[in-house]
Structure formats: structure tokens, C-alpha cells
Amino acid sequence: MPQLPSALDHFDEIKAQFGNRQIALFLDYDGTLTPIVPDPEKALLSETMRRLLDRIASQRMLIIVSGRDRANVADKVDLPELIYVGSHGFDIKGPELEEQHHAGIDALPALDAAEQELRDALADVPGAQVERKKYAIAVHYRQVAPEQQERVKQEAEQAAQRHETLKPAGGKGIVELKPNYDWHKGKSIRWLVDTLELSPEEMLPVYLGDDLTDEDAFREMRDWGITVLVGDHGHETAAQYGLHDVDEVGRFLQLVLEEVEQTATSHS
Ligand SMILES: O=P(O)(O)OC[C@H]1O[C@H](O[C@H]2O[C@H](CO)[C@@H](O)[C@H](O)[C@H]2O)[C@H](O)[C@@H](O)[C@@H]1O
User: Fold this and answer.
1) Where are the alpha helices (DSSP H) in 58-101?
2) Phi-psi region of 152 (alpha: psi -120 to 50; beta: other; left: phi over 0)
3) From ligand 1's centre to the CA of 67, what distance in Å?
4) Which metal ions or organic cofactors does this protein require, according to UniProt (predicted)?
5) Of 9, 12, 28, 75, which residue is the catalytic one?
6) Which of 36, 91, 162, 217 is most buried per CB count within 10 Å?
7) Ligand 1: does its nearest atom lie under 6 Å from the Cβ of 140?
8) Is 180:165 a contact under the CB 8 Å cutoff?
9) Ligand 1 and 30: CB distance under 6 A
10) Atom of ligand 1 nearest to the CA of 138
11) pTM of the predicted model, to two decimals?
């Protein structure tokens, strides 16, 4: 892990920044709430984590911010009252809110074409997986033999270059094709904070994430939120604190829950 202060060891310092404000949690899914596993469909939320999220969400704002397809991550978390951000911020939906980013909609024909091109190009590569999300495509090479991984990455990058409404991006064991527009997890969080009128005097946003796309959120929130990197993605980070793994995320969320419940008791 990069040399970051531990969000567990420094929980009192983090708590002090709440002051009289309520915490609003923004949580990434893969690598943060569930460990990274070879098969994306087997990245399942533990019951312990689900109960923890449910208990916090009953008292505080809790939003899932994922690169996955929104419906897919909502299905996996299975807490219908939450707001879910999918496709890296291009697809947002909650009980009383919905936003499909125009650049995602504009990129749909290119995404459909690129998906087919990639399925054809990679059909003979054992372990390569093309995961279509509504407004993105993840090309997985984690399960591809090392000598073929470069070919998979190149196919994905070339597919993105063939379509001007798409751009490539990196991640853990994946190359993603995303809408070619300056929009990302960080901007979608800013949009949510403004749309939900979360005033900085009343709310302190806290973001937990593990991968390169979470760095967009860390950078965006640097001056107005608390940011926590989970594990290590091998690059520089803009996060303020660190946690080693999903188990430590669980311990951190438990501390948040205790703090939230203690505040509720002291106000009753
Ligand atoms: O923003 P996230 O919620 O973290 O989603 C990022 C990507 O996560 C998934 O891929 C990653 O997790 C898989 C399961 O552990 C792993 O097999 C893969 O190597 C990782 O890159 C998901 O499949 C992607 O669509 C997301 O973009």
C-alpha cells in the first residue's frame, strides 16, 4: 500500500472533521466492498457487509459508485433504497432520482459496434472476457495466459480508437472502453452533492475506492471530502487515508456505524 495514514488508526482524527456534520458515504464496489476475484460475476457481497451497509443507510446517506453496469451492481448489493452510480458515473438511479449522461447515450451505437468487434476478435483467446455495461465495456485479461495478455489489451485499445465517441482506460486486469467525454466518478459525485443539495455545513462526504477510476473521485473531493484508498493499484494516489483490504473496510464501516448510532442515542 502507498504510505498513507491508516483510516482505522486515524479514525478519531477523521471523526473530528465531522464536527456537527453528518457523514455521507460514497462506496466503490469491486476491491472495496468485495475482494477482487477472477470471475466478475462471482464478486459477491458478504451478508455481514450487506447488513452493515443496510444499518448505516437507515440513518445516513450511502451511495454505491461503480464501474459496473448499474443494474448489475444494484442486484449484487441488493439494498433497493440506495442510490447507485453505474458505468463510471454515466448512469445514476435512486428511488427518487435518475440521470443518464448524454455522452453515454451518444456513445451507445459505438459501444454496440465495439462490443461485437471485440467478441469476434477475442473469440479464440481463452480466458478473455468482454463485459458489456450500459455505457462502457470492460475487456478482462486477468484469466488470459500471460503471453496473450498484450494482444487482448491492444485489441481493446484499437477498438476504442476506431470510434471517436469512445476512449480506453486502465483498471485491475482490464481495459475499459468508456464514452469519450470528460465525465467520471468524481464528477458524478459532485453532480449528486449539488443535486441532492448536500450542504458542506451539514454533510461530510467520505469516499472509499481501490482502483484507478477512484482516483478521479479522490482528486475531485480533495478539498471538500475525506478519501480512502483500499489496497494498492500500483500508481500515485490522491487519497488522504488508506485501508489494506476489504476486511479493513468492514472494520472502518463498523466504526462509522458505532459513531452514527452513538450520535443518534445522544440526541434521543
Ligand atoms: O468501480 P468498481 O465497482 O470497482 O468496478 C470496477 C470494475 O470491477 C469489476 O472488475 C474488477 O473486479 C473483478 C471481480 O473481482 C475482477 O475479476 C476484475 O479483474 C477487476 O477489474 C467489473 O467486472 C468491471 O466491470 C468494473 O469496471
Assistant:
1) 70-77
2) alpha
3) 7
4) Mg(2+)
5) 28
6) 217
7) yes
8) yes
9) yes
10) 25
11) 0.97
Q: Is residue 28 annotated as a catalytic residue, yes or no?
A: yes
Whether the CB-CB separation of 225 and 190 falls below 8 Å is answered with no
Q: Is the dihedral of CA 21, 246, 209, 192 positive or negative?
A: negative
Q: Is the CB of 86 under 6 A from ligand 1?
A: no
> Would you state the cell numbers that stand for residue 213, as one nine-digit string?
477510476
Domain boundaries, the chain: 11-100+183-266, 104-179
Compute CA distances 41 → 60, 151, 190, whole Å. Answer: 29, 24, 29
Ligand 1 pocket check for 196: Cβ under 6 Å: no
According to CATH, the topology of domain 11-100+183-266 is: Rossmann fold (3.40.50)
Distance 259 CA to ligand 1 centre (A): 30
pLDDT digits (tens, 9 = 90+) for 239-257: 999 999 999 999 999 999 9
Tens of pLDDT, residues 47-77: 999 999 999 999 999 999 999 999 999 999 9
Amino acid letter, residue 96: E
> Is domain 104-179 classified as CATH 1.10.1240.10?
no
Cell of 171: 483498471
